Amino acid sequence: MGRRGRDGGNKRGRTQRRDFRDRRPNVWKKSRPEPSADQPDAQPSSETGWMPFVMESTSFELFYKKQCIVPEEEWSTFISTLKKPLPTTFRINGSGQFAHGIRDQMQRDFFDYLKDGAEVDGEEVAPARPLLWYPDNLAWHLSFSRMQLRKLPILERIHEFLKQENEIGSITRQEAVSMIPPLFLKVEPHHKVLDMCAAPGSKTFQLLEMIHQADKPGELPDGMVIANDSDVQRCHLLIHQTKRMCSPNILVTNHDAQLFPGLKDKSCRGAATLNEGDAEGPVEDGNRLLFDRILCDVPCSGDGTLRKAPDIWRKWNCGVANGLHRLQVQIAMRGVAILKVGGRLVYSTCSLNPVEDEAVVGEILRASGGSVELLDVSSELPELKRRPGMMSWKIRDRKRWLCSASQVNRHRAGVVVPSMFPSGNGWDSSDADEKNEGPDETESEEGPPEIATLPLERSMRILPHDQDTGGFFIAVFQKISPLKASITESVPSLVSEGSQHENQNGINRDPEDHSLGNGVKGPIMDIPVSALEEDEVHEDEEEVTDRIAAIVEEEEVEEEGEGVATTANQRATGSRFQRQGRWRGVDPVLFLEDEKVISSLVAFYGIKETFPLSGHLVTRSEDSSRLKRIYYVSKSVSDVIRLNFSAGEHLKMTSAGLKMFERQQPKDGTSPCAFRIASEGLPVLLPYMTKQIVFASKRDFKLLLSNKVVSFSAFSDNFSVALQNLLHGCCVVALPAKEVDGADKVSSDQPLATAVGCWHGRTNVSLLITKAEAGQMLQRLSLNDETLPSTAVDKTVQGAVASEFREGETAVVVNGDTKRAAILTVQRTQDDEMAGVDRMPEDVETPKLVKGEQVVPDPIVETSSQAMDIDADVVDVPATTL
Ligand SMILES: C[S@@+](CC[C@H](N)C(=O)[O-])C[C@H]1O[C@@H](n2cnc3c(N)ncnc32)[C@H](O)[C@@H]1O
């Protein structure tokens, strides 16, 4: 998904854009109509409420026909495919514990059924199919319509299943073409990877998976991913997305990618300067920040996403792409500068426009003076249908078709720069005759287009009609020698060679100066106001905005009361944030060095000495007595944080590693440890825990997962005793991979199927994961099919108890026929549900009231969502309801 750089660097431009936005009707604010089969997408009209999107654009067709983007005979297929809705595609998260299990389950339960040719109203439902070029059949393509979905129950079930799995993080819904760039990066677990324009993070997630692909329990890879985005709100989205990966090997940063800091240890030869690449003399790798792999999935005009965002038809104009070319080159060149020799860089856009694609590739090759090579990757991912990069194109500027830089009007020379043309040649100033002064509002075209001499055909175009996808562009580079210092220095002017406006078009080299936004001046200001608004149209912006708002809100709530060491001054101004290096308004990332806190964690959880804690625990607060969260970072991330300190703190870090501990003290202060394990931290810590961990049989594990709170006595004897031997507070219940006879017989080295964080109360244990997560876990572990006493208690029973007991009170309800009992504790759980695992359930008192019958083993604790203040002793429940 493309998204143009923010601001454009001009106040007037921002105001104009705001006016434009305010005048524009917001099509997303209304609810959508029920779409029909032939009108799957609709847009509003003032009279009728809704009407179909206008899926055509004369300027789009004129432009791409002229560029010969496809052979003439393919044009109608190309255009008609662009007008069809995009099929659903998703990826099973490859390094997830259950990846292959999910794939097999899906195939067995759903897709095999469709293979036999399902029909709706006589129309065949297209079978689900794996994306053949994606490894291990872990990515799938579904293309049934909404109408089919409504009419065929199996499709509805598939839909629900995918929604649930997506929520839980087992799969990622992602456009097929967007899955391609990370595959060409060929990431290995020891690589340092930079994702320069990473939000919302679907490709970052893939990169992280690759880093973790060979993980063994208890081992972390040597590599890491730095996910960067210039938009701080989108950085939060990025954090939210990647959290599902539970990786300590990630750092999220917030920089304009074209200014991504070069870090070098100040104590090394040649002190660090910002924007420095590897052009200076040799310095040990560990003392500077260089990358093995870089993804430049740059902001772009995004017309390759027309199928997903049909609104682009209405807004399309080629000025957007022209205006982005310069920024795209700058970002990619910054990438080249901080790439290791031998490393790979993938440049990608979801735009079909050669000015954002091949023109940028050509300029990277020219500007890097032979330091990078454009790789021929035709033998990689052989199943992927692709077309060669274009060798020839024209530039459209206002109403003129331009074949070379020499045809550019003088007053447009700051906008239409030589690097946009296939040859990259500038125009000779002695050539500045009248033809370069002419009007640019009249249609004109002069001569045949230039033909590139560089091997641009090695880059790849993915066209929508080749394999029913969106459009995409990918180029793979390898660095073969360091950039010459003179080149690094001249990057700002690379794209304005020959332009008299060159001095206006340099990049902003002062990291403190945010007034210039993304550092791109000049050309952006020349884009029509309408064009400035069109950059994000290919994303369902309303959805993204809502998600960001929810996440930011959540984080703000979380941050409240965070133990930030606020100075008196900060308190006076109400500022929650401190200063991170040279970045104002960002909490610092600090190593946790408070021995008291660390030793309490080690003692409580029995953390083995082999688990490296020193230098791996970081916080965002200087006052450890008030800190709320402790994060864990891998050695690779720890090294970068250290390097950042020694280089003068140039990196602006939004988040580092994963949340491992969170402050949690019961009101009565009965737990000896003030921190519970955060669910994303559990997989990393688990192999090193020797205390507060108990091993359950399948039966007990199921009992726990099926209920939010379970009293000790509900479990089998062995397990109940093991639980009661734990200290009050956070604990982990683990399910051994092989069923054992009795929890006490499980050794701590036992391979585990899974584990779950819990809270150990006085009489019960409660899950610290959401109900949805527990449900998924049950399903995945195939625990559902085992015969266990039903844990479901009829709503009528819950209602009866709720009406008779006070909140916090517990009732044992006995079924007169079966003699089975249920223990119901009256609690208001609505808020708990919403807060998910972040809320600790209140302790449950020992059951007070037992109806006068013998209570058989297996009492099951349930919580009721209703509570009333009636003082009563006994509940009389109809036997049938239990
Ligand atoms: C094409 S989207 C990236 C999509 C992302 N790679 C993914 O797969 O989810 C482009 C991103 O670039 C960011 N962006 C725009 N200008 C930027 C700049 N100068 N530096 C870094 N990021 C920028 C936008 O905020 C946007 O999130």
TrEMBL record:
It is found in: Nucleus. The keyword Transport does not apply. InterPro entries: MeTrfase_RsmB-F_NOP2_cat, MeTrfase_RsmB-F_NOP2_dom, Pre-PUA_NSUN2, PUA_NSUN2, RCMT, RCMT_NCL1, RsmB/NOL1/NOP2-like_CS, SAM-dependent_MTases_sf. Keywords: Methyltransferase, Nucleus, RNA-binding, S-adenosyl-L-methionine, Transferase, tRNA processing, tRNA-binding. Residues 78-480 form the SAM-dependent MTase RsmB/NOP-type domain. The active site is at C350 (nucleophile). Gene3D superfamilies: Vaccinia Virus protein VP39. It holds the Pfam family Pre-PUA_NSUN2. Residues 1-49, 419-457, 494-520 are annotated as: Disordered. Residues 1-35 have a biased composition (Basic and acidic residues). PROSITE patterns: NOL1_NOP2_SUN, SAM_MT_RSMB_NOP. S-adenosyl-L-methionine binds at C197, A198, A199, P200, G201, S202, K203, D229, D256, D297. Residues 494-507 have a biased composition (Polar residues). Signal peptide: none annotated. It comes from the Eukaryota. Its main location: nucleus. Residues 439-448 have a biased composition (Acidic residues). Belongs to the class I-like SAM-binding methyltransferase superfamily. RsmB/NOP family. This is SAM-dependent MTase RsmB/NOP-type domain-containing protein. It comes from Sphagnum jensenii.
